[in-house]
Amino acid sequence: MDKFVINGPCKIKGNVSISGSKNASLPILAATLLFDKPVVIKNLPRVRDINTMLNLLKSLGSKIILSRDKKTAKIINKKNMKTFASYSLVKTMRGSILVLGPLISKHHQSKTSLPGGCLIGARPVNYHLESLKKLGMEYELKDGYILAKSKGRLIGTNINFPKISVGATENSIIAACLAKGKTILKNCAIEPEIKDLTNFLNKAGAKIKWSGRTCKIIGVNSLNKTEYSVMPDRIEAGTFCIAATLAKGNLQINNFNPRIIDTEIKVLKKFGSKIKTTENKIFIKGPQKIKSIKNIKTKEFPGIPTDLQAQLMVLMCKADGKSSITENIFENRFMHVAELQRLGAEINIKNNIAMIKGNTKFIGAELMSSDLRASVALVLAAIVSNGKSHINRIYHLDRGYEKIENKLKKIGVKIKRLK
Length: 419
Prior knowledge:
This protein has helices at 22-31, 48-59, 87-90, 100-107, 126-134, 166-176, 192-203, 234-246, 262-270, 309-318, 337-343, 372-383, 395-398, 404-410, and strands at 3-8, 13-17, 39-42, 63-66, 73-76, 84-85, 109-113, 137-142, 145-150, 158-160, 182-186, 207-211, 214-218, 226-229, 250-254, 274-277, 281-285, 295-297, 323-326, 346-350, 353-357, 366-368, 387-392, 414-418.
């Protein structure tokens, strides 16, 4: 099993380009199941979760032609697609549940395994199931599978999500595209990746309009042949901004619209970073002394994303004074804390709040990854540790960051991948 060895401390300097967004690519790829005509998706990140989704589409009958660099996929669906999404593919990635909506909408039946992915809380699929049920899907849960069907086309309806859910919003939007009549979704998630999904669908002839957290979809009979380029990854961009702030960096981040992470940039300025932006670049200089922030809270977009909580916690460990961070999205997302404590961090957890004593002198250690974002937090901590750190189980990292060690090497990090 691969691991990283990092010799710290490292100073970060140079340029980095941001890859395509994993969290936008997954629903867009799932939505290609709605199409009879070929679809070309560009700027895909070369990460494990994308390979899993492409393999899932292949297992359902899609023909996939990848470009040489594997960042563009041409997807051609058969007339008679399969509708069985097997456990062997779905177990490794929660995003696999996103094939349920298009399979029911297009083929009126599906046997989809309940999903796996990171162990960061319950993340129930009941919001997905209840909204699809309102559109006309009938289902039962049996032997770990969702057995679903509909009597012909789904029927547009009004759905008010009891809780903001990214996945349920995406699944419902995709399913409603081919439904009869009008669907109105209220209390939607409005993350940029969801807007990217609806931009893609609208380009292909869907009729989707937004007003705040309300999404109105008028069903169409079919979608058109289309090409689409996925947005850059805001979590990767945020991670590199945090790395520069943490390691007294001087970093230019390319291929990214800074407005997408406006909230995060404001927070990093409070930590002491000097940040300038253009239309598609961020210039960031880390402070000599990181300021502490009393309490950061994760929240649905446009708040601080839960996917940057672990990385921000590392920053707080090095800040001058006490800080705290409240996790409002997932109930089990402090699994990185024990590993940061192995490096010397002083962190106390009470319910969903982590209280962090600053000015930590990290000392390199043997570490174990527990989930995707926790893994990258350990990498950041190792970068500013004294001595050598070994980070095991980095397959979690490979799920969401494209060749991160190559990008880090280019900006001054002493990092090696060992088999």
